[in-house]
Amino acid sequence: QGPGAVSASLAEGGEVRIVDLSLNGAVLESSTRLVPGASVRLELTANGVVFRANASVVHSAVVRVGPDAVEYRGGIAFVRPLPLSIPLEHHELSHGAFTGRELEAFRREL
User: Fold this and answer.
1) CA distance 73 to 64
2) What's the CA gap between 71 and 76, in Å, rounded?
3) Could you tell me the sign of the dihedral formed by the alpha carbons of 24, 27, 32, 33, in that order?
4) d(Cα 52, Cα 109) in Å, to the nearest integer?
5) 24: left (phi > 0), else alpha (psi -120 to 50), else beta?
6) Which of 17, 12, 42 is nearest to 28 (CA)?
């Protein structure tokens, strides 16, 4: 991953691809089934810093069926809004880095 790249996974296990991300939630794609109403813990890694956010799955649908896997797309709502914005453009942070103050505010929220 290059500078500013953001990766994500579910704490429960399973890699996810971020389709969209905001302060209040995200749209994810994953081979892990996303069940509406289920609680999940999303782990985001950006610039070497891991962010964790509790969320609830709001909606989910099958987007691809392959010979060995099913791919889901689901929307999640964070239990508490993220204290900073992580705008994505092609999986990279628009501004390349978080400020120290933003990172400290997020760590206090954990």
Assistant:
1) 9
2) 16
3) positive
4) 10
5) alpha
6) 17
pLDDT at 109: 46
- Strands 92-93 vs 6-10: parallel, antiparallel or unpaired: unpaired
Annotate the chain with three-state secondary structure.
CCCCEEEEEECCCCEEEEEEECCCEEEEEECCCCCCCCEEEEEEEECCEEEEEEEEEEEEEEEEECCCCEEEEEEEEECCCCCCCCCEECCEECCCCCCHHHHHHHHHHC
Confidence (pLDDT) at 65: 96
Q: Side chain identity at 67, as an amino acid letter? A: P
What's the rounded Cα separation, in Å, for the pair 89 and 70? 26
Which of 83, 78, 86, 87 lies closest to 101 in space, CA to CA? 83
pLDDT, tens digit, 9 for 90 and up, residues 35-76: 999 999 998 887 777 888 899 999 999 999 999 989 999 999
Residue whose entry in the numeric block shows the structure tokens 């392959």 = 66
